[in-house]
Amino acid sequence: MVLPERTDVLVVGAGPTGLAVATTLAGYGIAATVVDRLAEPPVTSRAAVVHAGTLEVLDRIGVAAPLATRGLHSVRFVVRDRDRVLATVPFDRLPSRYPYALLISQAETEAVLADRLTALGGRVLRPYEMTGLDLDGDGAVARFAGGGTVRARWVVGADGMHSRVRELAGIRFGGPADPGESFLLADVRVESALPRDQVTLFLSRRGPLVWAPLPDGTVRLVASVADAPREPQARHFQALLDERGPARRPDRVVEVAWASRFRIHHRIADSYRRGPVLLAGDAAHVHSPAGGQGMNLGLRDAVALGDALAAGPQALDGYAADRRPRAEEVLGFAAGLTRLAAAPPALRPLRDLLLRTASALPPTRHRLAVRLAGFEPHPPPAAASAG
Prior knowledge:
Alpha-Beta Plaits, 387 residues, alpha+beta, eight-stranded mixed β-sheet, seven-stranded mixed β-sheet, FAD/NAD(P)-binding domain
């Protein structure tokens, strides 16, 4: 498919955020041009949860219902120390039509979004890698490998943590450049006695381990490690389960469907807008995977940005002013969860006592469930006045 010479909105990146921006715009009858540097969408699962607050937002663009039919509904989040339950956070009383955490591969989430975009007349152009971006009074001219150009009134950077759009627009990505703690993650087939309707976080002296079932029968494992191997194998994940997982009825890894490693970054763009350039998703913010907030925040960014673009230029400063404080709050929340999971040995008895006490108080349990579920408060006063 050939690039157009002109477009009103150019969306760079066809991950969940870019697809959700374009789908939101298509619902308003606005056609966006979506480009991606990959010839085919990735098939690995990567992010694996869509929270209730995000599903409520996605319901507005016709995506929540088909997602809900494909995913596994997790009705609670459980924190354990081996076999001992420290806290239980129930989702079944959330103020939502989707009272659960939806466990679903990111590849499936992208497929549902792409189907919805196609149904509304949109499409993704592949493979097109943006190599240059010239801003002027009429918008921007994007240049692509191979010599193609597109003039756009607005350019949306939804191209991930290493965003070329953000870089070319000259927007600083604040925070430490060096990554922090390393993690292993994998989708594995396991023999396990753990319930398949809940996500379990195991806390241990060596670090946290997340155990999250997926609809295809695999289990997503995510664990902090001192030194992640380049090519993690089944034995690495079996060792993590033996060290941190259930003790009385231990899990046994049968097969590794997919595995990778990553390091934590905590960074946020100095601004979500520079002239005709707007950022959303990982191009604007990255943080710890604790709480499964990253893709969810990006999806909520995307629908908010689509609404703002449809409303006209006056709404775009409001988008930038509103979304960045929300990202700061999520970064702080994720960092706090990470610190809680990695508490030093001397503080762990106190941490465990606090978790058990909080879990025993229904109002506290409910507040934590709402927070984990991604329900956002009304826009801050600065953002409300900016729009």
